[in-house]
Amino acid sequence: YFIAALHIARRRHEADEVSAAAAAQTVTDILGSLLIGVDHAGFAVPDLDEAVSMWTAMGLREVHRERNDEQGVVEAMMAVGDGATRIQLLAPSDSTSAIAGWLDKRGPGIQQVAFEVRDIEAAATALRMLGFDVLYDTPRGGTSNCLINFVHPKSCGGVLVELVQYPL
Ligand code: V0V
User: Tens of pLDDT along 90-109?
Assistant: First the structure.
């Protein structure tokens, strides 16, 4: 439904029924309706166990841990209070991963902010229509069987935005 609505907006502009600005606004409105909230912020850390200990001492709780070889990370999800917001601790599992590169260049810190979306394919289509640089042609596997994709920080104000869709 969402992807069909996005293509209708484009076709209406191509047929000169609506201006480029009006079509873009429709795409933005659809994208806005696909956003559910901030799911997590991702912190790059050199050592997962040490980072889990530090954030646990601050009162966060580890709720999930897994290794993702495709992304080259070992990660722990930390709950902040009783709400749904998570902090994702990301340590490199191989020296060529994005997290290893980030740590080399910038050291530990906030590497990404993740938005939960209702339909990740539609969100990526809308973002591309609006000129954002979406990294993957099709979503990849993320934490807890989620689908993930990313918007390149160069097209996004210097912030790496992750898109997350939970399994049904
Ligand atoms: C790089 N840059 C960043 C950045 N990474 N800026 C803000 N936030 C980041 N995270 C900037 C960097 O400072 C450079 O700016 C420029 O982009 C190119 O940097 P680079 O070091 O050459 O980096 P690239 O191009 O090799 O890689 C950047 C991208 C890469 C975004 C393409 O990090 C990537 O593929 N990220 C997506 C995958 C990922 O992050 N996986 C780990 C999390 P200047 O110097 O040119 O100005 S896995 C995960 O989240 C999971 C499993 C999950 O949530 O479930």
Answer: 999 999 999 999 999 999 99
CB-based contacts of 90-96 (< 8 A; 24+ apart in sequence): 90/42, 90/43, 90/44, 90/45, 91/44, 91/45, 91/46, 91/47, 91/48, 91/51, 92/46, 93/67, 93/68, 93/69, 94/69, 96/72
Separation of CA 160 and ligand 1 centre (Å): 6
List, for residues 17-26, the tens digit of each pLDDT value.
888 999 899 9
What is the CA(32)–ligand 1 centre distance, in A? 24
Whether 92 lines ligand 1, by a CB cut-off of 6 Å, is: no
Q: Please choose from 64, 73, 85, 160 the residue to mutate so as to test ligand 1's pocket, defined by most ligand atoms within 8 A of CB.
A: 160
